[in-house]
Model the fold of this input.
Amino acid sequence: MNPLPEYVGDLPNICGQEPLVDQVVTAARAKPLFAKHGGVDFSKVRAATAIALHQHQPLIPAGGGDLRTATLISNLQYMMENQGIGDNYNAGAFVWCYKRMGEFVPQLVGEGKSPRCMLEYSGTLLHGLRKMGENHVIDALKNITCNPDYNSCIEWLGMPWGHAVAPSTPVQDFKLHVRAFQHHFAAIFGWEALERMRGFSPSEMALPNHPDVAYAYVKTLVDCGFQWVLIQEHSVVQVSNGRNPERPHIPHRLVCTNSKGETASIIAIIKTQGSDTKLVAQMQPWYEAQSLSRVELAGHSIPPLVTQIADGENGGVMMNEFPGKFMEVARASSHGDVPMMNASEYLEHLFALGIKETDFPVVQPIFHDRIWARMKPGDGPEVLAKVIADLKQEDGRFHMDGGSWTNSLSWVQGYDNVLGPMEEASALFYEKVLKPGTPTDDPRYRNALFHLMASQTSCYRYWGQGLWTDYGREICQRVKDIIHYDFE
Done:
């Protein structure tokens, strides 16, 4: 199969070969890819730990003095070019953070150790690094991703290309983000690397809890070939008793049913609560795993898996303390009874024991139990809307904003001035681009999609009102202008 070019003109290769992507992903699901190559004797593992690094930089209209005409550049490039503002002096350190796993893994493997790390880089970051000429970062990542000496140590996770928050991103657009990331990733790292992408990491750990959106979310992941999704502990409850997961260190099954009675499910790996960046930077998940022992599941004795994800660059602890602690733990854990493992590798070992997905405890998004206590799946969206309205009126804490890594931040409330333009741009894209069936390899389609996905980055709703919301609205306006110019 011929490799995809990384760029088509000036734009990253985010669309146009979806059938090939589907073909590769579907064929790969039948292959054991991790357990045989990882060198872990699962029968002797008492407990294990999995860490993931989330890396992201948005695209912003800052390549010039006028917001309305400024070139869309990486926020990292803006930081690099304006190091006297705020904490932009960290730009150089950030670049090294994006590269450094490409240095740590070869060094540790050369010492005979077995490091593990899951990586999640947004499409906007990967594109930004290329446009800045930071090719050495991509080269280092390619080495540990594609070189068989190292690739059993690294697991790449899928994500929405533009770092979109699932609960408040239009459903059809979210699927475009997921597909675009797979497409772009294959263009950078190759088809064989895409085969090994089994897990999905949601931006901001956001899980939709509106039943119809949650169902569409899980169905999108399954349709795109993902085997499992990372979820936040407090964003789900057990179907059996309505409590938060009581055994967070074993896999679960996330089951979502919509108002029409349709059900979709996917394996869920639970990220436990806590101060994410410090936990990973100081490798505390491994120390927690050391205190655990094997547990019973479906008649089998299995090791629990302590899983945690954090920003890979933000904060002094992650920038400065992580390298030493990661190297120390990788050395101490290798070939012991509490190793580092990646989640897909761990699941493959479970399945080799005869454990099935249906053996995992079942969870559903928060508040679903309260909804289904008042209606039946199949009653339809109108009944669902009334039930939700009634519950909101009765309880001010009840919401359909979704769960994420933080309980104190809403991705919806207070952001009408961004969400409005985002929804307008999305509706226009659907009406003028998707609905008429524009071919995905059409340059006009790629340009409109690129800007649409860039406009839906979570950053425009993270930093509060001000310049960042201005950025978001400006990119949304560009989406509308592009569609009016190219498709009308």
